[in-house]
Amino acid sequence: MTTTESGGPTGQDAVVKPQRRVGLVWVIPIVAAAIGAYLAFDEINSRGPTVTITFDTAEGLTAGKTKVRFRSVDTGTVESITISEDLSHVIVTCAMVKASKKHLTENTRFWVVRPRVGAGGISGLGTIVSGAYIGMDPGPTQNGQTGAIGKEAAAQPLAKRALHFTGLAMPPTKAIDASGLKVVLHAEGLSGIDIGSPLLHRQTEVGSVVHHQLAKDGKSVAIDIYVLPEFSMLVSSKSRFWNASGVAVKAGMGGIDIQTESLKALVSGGIAFDTPGENVTSKLKQDAEFWLYDSRPDLAESDFRYGGHALIVEAPELGGLKLGDRVYYRGEPVGAVVSHGLSADHSRVRVHLNIQNRYAPLVRNNSVFWNASGISANLGLKGLHIHTESLEALLSGGIAFATPDSAGTQVKAGSVFALHAEAEDKWTKWAGAEGGKKKTDKGLLSHIFHHHEDKTEEAAAADHDPEQPHPAEHTKHGFIHKLFHDKK
C-alpha cells in the first residue's frame, strides 16, 4: 500500500485492460452466411425427386425449358437429355416438385404432348405455340383401385414407388376403372380402328379401344376393348362384335341397304356389338376373347356358316357351288357351304356344310341333298316342268335337302351324304322330320341315297384331300370354331 505526503493511505493503482469487440465489418458476412445456410437448407428441403424417363426420340424436348405437366399444372422440369449407350433410345432426366413425390409409382405414366390427329380427334394444338411438354398421369396409387376408399382402400396393397420410367409412344386413353370390363377382340386386320375408337351399343358409346398389337404368329391382330363400368353388364359370352367403321352397303333384290353406326365411327372408326337372347345376369370375366367380324352383314353370314351342325355332301363335280352358298329347306335358308375340295383319291368333290343348330333336327339319316343352283327342266307326258328352289338360289346358288314323311334317326356331325344333281318331284312333297315319327329301314335307304351313315367327322376328314384347305385351318374360321366348340 502507498501513502500520501500527509501520511494518509492511498488506494491500489488502477490497471486498465483493453476489451475485445467484434468489428462491424464482420457482421455483414456472418448474417450473409446465415441467410445462405437457411436458403440452402430450404432448397434441399423443398427439392422434389429426380426421375428418368426413356423415350424413342427427344423431338421437341429442351433441357432447362421443357416442363412436366399434370392437368396443365407444372410438376417438373427437364434437366438433361442424354442418349443411351446402345443408341436405342434417349434418357430424359427431370427435376420434379416435392408434392409429386407420393404420386411417382409403378403406375405413373409419361408421354410427350405434341399436336396429334387420331381416332379420338385432334389433340395438343396448344403446343404449336408453347412447344411440346411431357404429360404425366399418376395412375392409381393402389394396385387397380382408383376409386377405393376407407377400409376397402386400406385392404389393397400400395403401388411401389418408382423413379425410372418408360415413356409412352402415344398418349394414354382415359383412366381405366377396375370396376369396368376389358375384353380382347381378334381380327384379321385393324381396318380403320385405332386407340380411342369408340365401342358402340345401339349407336351409344359405351367404351373404347385402349390397345392393339399384332399377334405373335403375325396372322391376326389382338384389340383390347374397355367397357365402362355402368355398361359392362351388357356384354356376355354370347355377345358378337363387328367393325362399325365406314359404311356397309348391301345390294339385293329389295334394293340397296346402306348402314352406318354413327358419324364418329364413320370418321374415326369404331366397333359395335350386340348380345342376342336374354338379359345378362352375371358379369363376364376380364380378358374374355371374341372374334371381330368385318361388318354387320359378315356377322349375319357367320350365323349360317359357323357354330352349327357340320355335314358333308359328295358329288362327281362342284357344279357351280361356292363358299357361302346357302343350304335350303323348303326354300328357307338353314345353313351354308363352309368349304369344298377334292377327296383323297380325287374321284369326287366333298362339300362341307354347316346347318344351324335350331334346324339340325331336320336332317335325318334318310334325308336327300341336291344342287339347287339354277333351273332344272323335265320333259314328260304332262309337258315341260321347270323347277327352281328359290329366286335367291337361282341368283346365288345353293344346296337343298328334304326328309321323307317317315323320318329316320338324327345324324351325327360329320355324316356324309350324296349330292344329287337335281331334285325329284316326290322329294319336294315330303312332310319331313316334322311329319310322322316312323322309322324306315336304314340299310335300304342308305343304299338308295348313298348315305355314309354314322361316318364320324374324323373319318370324313381322313378322306379329305390334304392338299385342299380345311375351314378350321383359317385364322378366322379356326378361332370361331374354338369359340363355339372348345368351351369347357
How is this structure best summarized?
The protein has 488 residues and is of the alpha/beta class.
What can you tell me about this protein's structure?
By secondary structure, this protein is α/β, with parallel strands linked by helices. The chain folds into three domains: 46-145 and 156-166, no CATH class; 181-303, no CATH class; 306-485, no CATH class. It contains ten helices and 27 strands. 27% of the residues are buried.
Topology:
Elements: H1 27-46, E1 47-55, E2 67-70, E3 73-83, E4 90-97, E5 109-113, E6 116-118, E7 121-123, H2 127-130, E8 133-137, H3 150-154, E9 164-166, E10 181-187, E11 198-201, E12 204-214, E13 221-227, E14 240-243, E15 248-252, E16 255-259, H4 263-268, E17 271-274, E18 288-293, H5 296-305, E19 309-315, E20 326-329, E21 332-342, E22 349-355, E23 368-371, E24 376-380, E25 383-387, H6 391-396, E26 398-402, E27 416-420, H7 425-428, H8 442-449, H9 457-462, H10 475-485
Parallel strand pairs: 1-9, 2-8, 10-18, 11-17, 14-18, 19-27, 20-26, 23-27
Antiparallel strand pairs: 1-4, 2-3, 3-4, 5-8, 6-7, 10-13, 11-12, 12-13, 14-17, 15-16, 19-22, 20-21, 21-22, 23-26, 24-25
Question: What attributes does this structure have?
Answer:
single chain; 488 residues; alpha/beta; 3 domains; seven-stranded mixed sheet; seven-stranded mixed barrel; 10 helices; 16% helix; rod-shaped
